């Protein structure tokens, strides 16, 4: 079955009769692939500059780690701003503006004279650009797909893996030729490609859903009551108000006092066509914080908060760890590239598994998080090139299963659903900002204190274990909340069924009916 789309100019929206699961969505998926490569791919490849920055600025590990830490914090802390701007100005303009900020921050950082300059250029400017580029792209991609959402998002998110695989060796070789400053300048110019990808993000409109919501339900109800009145009333001028009280829609329980006032204009020649007109569309909220009242979302947000501790530090410290074990620079870059390739397969595998039905996706995610914690614990026990290579491949595969699915999983009914995903993603990434700020510096402090890179991986594993605990609580909170709502609805129905007498009628109305009944009785006696 094909989905018809209205052909429109490149700058306008795509209008479909249902979620296309393809169409222009494939172009959006390609744009997301490139955006992933030029955002998270660069962040994860930034470890190749660590030793150069420490030597150039004569700084410690922890102070250099603050560059990426501030960048990740700004990226996640400003997520609600990204949601508000996307809902106000559209995803296309926001992503294009984000691409300009990312490129400007990286280019300016290549001329930095101190680590403080790096905090501002890469940390603040590029961090804000990363937020405006990544989050709107993954949000609009989820709107273009339904049945294939998990698989397409997972495959498209492999862009960062291919970027790490290609950028790490390329930047390492480029540094030897032109130095780290010009290498960073080249990366900044390359990131202008985000702006081109943003121009491909056409908004999507599902016309059939809007028309279904625009159907006025009152038309059939009024027709029903009119037919009942024609069958029960003896004439148009009947004064038997007892018929009207039982069949008129104005006397449905709960509306006895409000509806008669609304019917008066109809008797003075109001056009019936006005009642059938399409009601005004409700205004879209720029940011819906009602998700914070959902216990399942709160648990899922805490999962993201603690799991983020294990996302970035291993990629940043794998090269310094390998160098501390006596592994050469070239072989260290190969380890990081192998991790990226394994992450590609992990993302594809997770998307393929989550695309199967019926399956409880939240439980699959939980298993992957537990196995990812095991991978983090395994790093300190590795020795030599091949030991680190095996741990990196295992970690990369498990990281791919989690990193490529934890944000799209917000669209599932076990968390918040597709209707509230845009606002939920902004709040969710905002909560992650605390871990993004504290994670790398915490690992750096532990490394400087213990003089051992293994402590950084232990801290990441501890955060991942806490994340797994909160993720395990998401489904019970969701089912418990639904069960509680069902009990409340049943209790309300019982209260309504056992309620007291019906709503009181006007006194003059009752007196008039009694008077009519007495007069009709006297009239029948006189006839007899």
Overview of the molecule:
The structure is a single chain. The chain has helices at residues 25-38, 40-45, 50-57, 61-77, 79-89, 91-109, 115-144, 149-156, 159-190, 193-198, 207-214, 218-232, 241-247, 259-267, 295-307, 313-324, 329-354, 361-378, 384-403, 421-450, 454-472, 474-497, 507-527; strands at residues 5-6, 14-16, 204-206. It is mainly alpha-helical and 528 residues long. A hairpin with a 7-residue loop joins strand 1 and strand 2. Helix 4 (61-77) runs parallel beside helix 7 (115-144), helix 6 (91-109) crosses helix 9 (159-190) and helix 15 (295-307) runs antiparallel to helix 22. The radius of gyration is 31 Å and the shape is globular. The model is unreliable at 1-10, 209-214 and 219-279 (pLDDT under 50).
Characteristics of this structure?
mainly alpha, Growth Hormone, Chain: A, 2 domains, three-stranded mixed β-sheet
Strand content: under 5%
Instruction: Figure out the total of helices.
Output: 23
* CATH evolutionary superfamily of the largest domain: MFS general substrate transporter like domains
Could you please say which CATH topology of the largest domain applies here?
Growth Hormone, Chain: A
The rough form would be described as globular
Count of DSSP E strands? Answer: 3
Order of helices and strands: EEHHHHHHHHHHEHHHHHHHHHHHHH
- Estimated helix fraction: over 70%
How does the helix and strand content classify structurally? mainly alpha
Through-space gap between termini: 76 Å
The tally of domains stands at 2
């Amino acid at each position: 079955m094909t989905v018809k789309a209205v052909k429109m100019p490149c700058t306008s929206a795509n209008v479909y009769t249902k979620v296309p699961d393809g169409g222009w969505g494939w172009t959006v998926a390609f744009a997301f692939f490139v955006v992933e490569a030029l955002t998270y791919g660069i962040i994860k490849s930034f470890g190749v500059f660590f030793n150069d920055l420490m030597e150039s600025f004569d700084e410690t590990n922890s102070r250099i780690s603050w560059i990426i830490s501030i960048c990740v914090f700004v990226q996640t802390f400003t997520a609600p701003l990204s949601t508000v701007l996307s809902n106000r100005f559209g995803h296309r303009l926001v992503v294009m503006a984000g691409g300009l900020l990312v490129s400007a921050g990286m280019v300016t950082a290549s001329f930095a004279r101190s680590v403080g300059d790096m905090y501002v250029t890469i940390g603040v400017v590029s961090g804000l650009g990363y937020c405006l580029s990544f989050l709107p792209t993954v949000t609009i991609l989820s709107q273009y797909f339904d049945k294939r959402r998990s698989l397409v998002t997972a495959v498209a998110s492999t862009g960062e893996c291919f970027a790490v695989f290609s950028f790490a060796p390329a930047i390492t070789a480029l540094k030897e030729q032109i130095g780290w400053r010009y290498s960073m300048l080249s990366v900044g110019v390359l990131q202008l490609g985000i702006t081109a990808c943003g121009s491909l993000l056409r908004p999507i409109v599902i016309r059939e859903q809007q028309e279904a919501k625009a159907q006025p339900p009152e038309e059939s109800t009024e027709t029903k009551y009119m037919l009942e009145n024609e069958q029960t009333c003896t004439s148009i001028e009947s004064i038997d108000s007892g018929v009207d009280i039982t069949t008129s829609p104005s006397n449905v329980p709960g509306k006895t006092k409000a509806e008669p006032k609304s019917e008066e204009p109809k008797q003075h020649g109001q056009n019936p066509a006005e009642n059938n007109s399409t009601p005004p569309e409700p205004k879209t909220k720029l940011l819906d914080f009602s998700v914070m009242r959902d216990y399942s979302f709160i648990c899922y947000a805490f999962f993201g908060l603690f799991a983020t501790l294990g996302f970035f530090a291993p990629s940043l410290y794998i090269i310094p760890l390998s160098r501390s074990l006596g592994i050469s620079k070239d072989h260290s870059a190969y380890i990081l590239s192998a991790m990226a390739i394994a992450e590609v397969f992990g993302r594809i595998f997770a998307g393929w598994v989550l695309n199967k039905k019926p399956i409880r996706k939240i439980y699959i995610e939980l298993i992957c998080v537990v196995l990812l914690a095991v991978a983090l614990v395994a790093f300190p026990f590795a020795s030599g090139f091949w030991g680190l290579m095996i741990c990196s491949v295992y970690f990369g595969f498990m990281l791919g299963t989690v990193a490529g699915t934890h944000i799209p999983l917000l669209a599932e009914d076990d968390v918040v659903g597709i209707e509230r995903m845009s606002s939920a993603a902004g709040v969710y990434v905002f909560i992650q900002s605390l871990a993004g700020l504290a994670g790398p510096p915490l690992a750096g402090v532990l490394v400087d204190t213990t003089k051992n890179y293994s402590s950084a991986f232990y801290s990441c594993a501890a955060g991942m274990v806490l994340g797994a605990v909160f993720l395990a609580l998401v489904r019970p909170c969701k089912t418990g909340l639904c069960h509680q709502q069902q009990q409340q609805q049943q209790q309300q129905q019982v209260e309504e069924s056992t309620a007291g007498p019906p709503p009181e009628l006007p006194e003059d109305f009752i007196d008039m009916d009694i008077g009519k009944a007495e007069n009709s009785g006297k009239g029948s006696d006189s006839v007899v």
